[in-house]
Amino acid sequence: MTLFPHAAAWREACRTDAVLTGWAGAWSTCFAVSCDGVATVFSLTEGRVTDDEAAPAFTLSAPSSVWAKCLEPIPPRHHHGIFAMMYRQADFRIEGDQLTFMQHAHIARRVLEIGKWLVLGNALPVPVSLNPREGARAVPAVTGRYVPVTVRGVTYQIYSESAGSGRDVLCMHTAGADGRQFHGLMADARIIENHRLVSFDLPWHGKSPPPDGAIHGSWRLNTDLYVELIMGFVAAAGLDKPIALGASMSGEICLELAYRHPEAFSGIVACEACEKINQRQTVWAAHPHVNQAQFVPEWIRALSAPQSPAEYVEQITWHYGQGGPQVFFGDIAFYSGDWDARDRVGRIDTNRCRLFMLTGEYDYSCTVELSEATAAKIPGVRFQAMQGIGHFPFAENPRLFAEYLLPILRELQG
User: Is the pLDDT of residue 241 over 70?
Assistant: First the structure.
């Protein structure tokens, strides 16, 4: 017996859903959700759900043991989203036309959310997000400026924001994003009373433009360029031995900074980092038949924990939808391609710079197990798993992340 609602009721809830209605347009598709071989078909014409049962282009298929966990109010890790299950659950499959799925992944995700809402016995309408809402996001008092940074004969106009006073903390954003990810921390009085948080947008990201004459879509990041941009910004911005803070690709580069330039930092906090990440590059982020502004936010959505406040998760996905052509793809060329520190993480000297590693339990890309295995190779590193947090700790749940960060900052301050 399927765990999902009756097909007619599920389709009717989809027909009246504000989110799906807002996405309606000049597109059509048909897909199915299958539980133990029992499929519910969703046919959309002009973006609106109909009662037709055409042949599905793709099917989300899993046994009831997997779907039951996905449908819990707060799913266990690796069951909290389509791509999380695709990566980490062998019994979950996306059958059929992969291109059509990637083009409509946001539609499939929303249909699943509607089904879950009904399964949990909630009344319609379905809220825009099933994540809990914490309230209005605090607006930080930031100071913005442009800092020219010259690397390999190319001058980049790097946009930077800062908030607070005291010891500098260099805040480095995740792949495809920008410094707005740190606004939650920059609004936290507990942090900025003794620290000045300084973020910057990498070239091609946020408010940092490509260099003059650059070919749009050609951005590709690698380890050496990344390090040179960071050290160039530190020097040009006049930062004196800041604390380095990053997550995901910027967590990886934190490990590289600890290896190459330990004396340049007062401490390093590498979040969601390990020595090597496999299988996170996706051709769909640069595919001409896939809407990057819809797909990339969907690709990263389930990297946030289901407990993280909706208003912050929505901001993360909004930022990712604003990325330039193939910028996310070019960052992942580093994150899950060029980056491979298996030959050197064991040589990081934590006597020259204190190193801390933090990883969220819901991160299915760089899992707690991957980070812990890397930390085991680094003498003197401090590793901690973060409960109720995913891949974007400072962006998805800044108040909770601060509970993990503040003790580290106090220790380094002392």
Answer: yes
